[in-house]
Amino acid sequence: MSKLRKGDEVEVLTGKDRTKRGTIMRVLPKDQKVIVEGVNVAKKHQRQTKARVRGGIIDKDMPVHMASVALVCPTDGPVRVGFEYKTEGDRHSKVRVCRTCGREL
Ligand SMILES: [Zn+2]
């Protein structure tokens, strides 16, 4: 189970986008990277093709390492996450929790 999932709100901890927040659009588990909306944006030059009459520059969100972002807890801001086992009746599940306040994330 990955600590980060698609749809999570995260804050960037390092680099030029430090303190920027965004939503995870894609998780790349093999590379230990995530693509966060509006973070690590690269200007890509697009070549002119038959289908695309105008070439030009487009913005593309590039993957960032999972270690350089932190999940945002509604009360604490960017936090470290842990896992806990929860038992409800005869159902056992593993949940993500905030290491600071203990709430389920
Ligand atoms: Zn918290």
Structural overview:
0% of the residues lie in helices and 51% in strands. A hairpin with a 4-residue loop joins strand 2 (21-28) and strand 3. A 6-stranded antiparallel β-sheet has the order 6-3-2-1-7-8, with no helix packed on it. A two-stranded antiparallel sheet has the order 4-5. A two-stranded antiparallel ribbon has the order 9-10. It is an all-beta fold and 105 residues long. It starts with 8 loop residues before the first strand and ends in a 7-residue tail after the last strand. The protein has strands spanning 9-12, 21-28, 33-36, 41-46, 56-61, 64-65, 69-73, 77-79, 81-88, 91-98. Bound molecules: zinc ion (ZN). Zinc ion (ZN) is lined by residues 73, 75-76, 79, 98, 100-101, 103.
Supply database-style keywords.
mainly beta, 105 residues, 10 strands, binds zinc ion, single chain, two-stranded antiparallel sheet, six-stranded antiparallel β-sheet, 0% helix
SSE topology:
Blueprint: E1 9-12, E2 21-28, E3 33-36, E4 41-46, E5 56-61, E6 64-65, E7 69-73, E8 77-79, E9 81-88, E10 91-98
Antiparallel strand pairs: 1-2, 1-7, 2-3, 3-6, 4-5, 7-8, 9-10
The structure holds zinc ion.
Radius of gyration: 18 Å
Estimate the global geometry from the Cα principal axes. elongated
> How is the largest sheet built, in terms of strand order?
6-3-2-1-7-8
The overall pLDDT, averaged over residues, is 92
